[in-house]
Amino acid sequence: MKIATYNINGINGRLPVLLKWLREAEPDIVCLQELKAPQDKFPEKALRNAGYHAVWHGQKMWNGVAIIAKGLPLEEVRNALPGDDGDLHSRYIEAIVGKMLVCCLYLPNGNPAPGPKFDYKMAWFKRLKKHAKYLLSEEVPVVLAGDYNVIPTEKDVYKPERWMDNALFFPEPRKAYKELVGQGWIDSIRHLYPDETIYTFWDYFRNAYGRNAGLRLDHLLLSPQIAPRLVAAGVDKHVRGWEKSSDHAPAWIELADEGETQS
């Protein structure tokens, strides 16, 4: 089974890119972020024609998250992160897909920092850690995937010294991410490739993609009940080079069939 996360950066404007990648990569499940589309403008028909069912939580102009699945039952569980009923940002959605719980998130950017946006980022992170701990307590297979807007370590950024004043690389969110993983989650890409340079995002400016001046912002975390099935992981970097592509590339994992584990 192939599961991916992809910040599409505007699903309607980049729908041809998304459909092309779906045909090429054939993922079974995809978590999408930054839809930038209200609920009634989500391209459900186009995705259904491509073979994918979807659940989504849209928002006009900004944010928006979705989970799409091919050939698997899909049932929405929640479309907001618990802990703040006043938070109207569309940044989180959960669904039962097959026999696992798939959670798609779009963590706040936090810039400019310090300031209210950074405070919101850290409050959101605190809520995420609390909910993630609850999910682990349920002892079920969970994939917690999305754009975390966090550069976990210096290994995950081109020229770390240039990002010291950016909320993506501040000590507080890096510490929060480490604490999140420390609950018992497996950072799938780093688990398989602990020492390799792997990026998922390249800015549109200064020829960042051409210079491979990237960041690793998109992560797929696995609960202990599903982590033993992890057999492969990667980033479809070439998609970032397509015309009118998102500034992110799809990150993905492959899981062995239930009952099989990595040898």
Mean pLDDT: 97
CATH topology annotation: Deoxyribonuclease I, Chain A
Work out the helix count: 6
| Secondary structure category | alpha+beta
CATH class: Alpha Beta
Give me the CATH superfamily: Endonuclease/exonuclease/phosphatase
Give the amount of beta strand, in percent.
25-35%
Task: Please outline what is shown here.
The chain is built from six helices and 14 strands.
Kindly list the characteristics that best describe this protein.
Deoxyribonuclease I, Chain A; 263 residues; globular; six-stranded mixed β-sheet; alpha+beta; 23% helix
Record the SSE blueprint:
Blueprint: E1 2-7, H1 15-25, E2 29-33, H2 44-49, E3 52-57, E4 65-70, E5 74-78, E6 92-97, E7 100-106, H3 116-137, E8 142-147, H4 171-182, E9 186-187, H5 188-192, E10 201-202, H6 208-211, E11 214-215, E12 218-222, E13 230-235, E14 251-255
Parallel strand pairs: 1-2, 7-8
Antiparallel strand pairs: 1-14, 2-4, 3-4, 5-6, 6-7, 8-12, 9-12, 10-11, 13-14
Helix pairs in contact: 3-4
Account of the protein in words:
- Belongs to the DNA repair enzymes AP/ExoA family.
- Keywords: Hydrolase, Magnesium, Metal-binding.
- Its cofactor is Mg(2+); Mn(2+).
- It is a single chain.
- This protein is an alpha+beta fold.
- It has a single domain (about 1-255), classed as Deoxyribonuclease I, Chain A (4-Layer Sandwich), CATH 3.60.10.10.
- It contains six helices and 14 strands.
- The chain has helices at about 15-25, 45-50, 115-135, 170-180, 190, 210; strands at about 1-5, 30-35, 50-55, 65-70, 75-80, 90-95, 100-105, 140-145, 185, 200, 215, 220, 230-235, 250-255.
- The protein has a six-stranded mixed sheet. A six-stranded mixed sheet has the order 5-6-7-8-12-9.
- It is globular, with a radius of gyration of 17 Å.
- The chain starts with a strand and ends in an 8-residue tail after the last strand.
- The model has no long low-confidence stretch (mean pLDDT about 95).
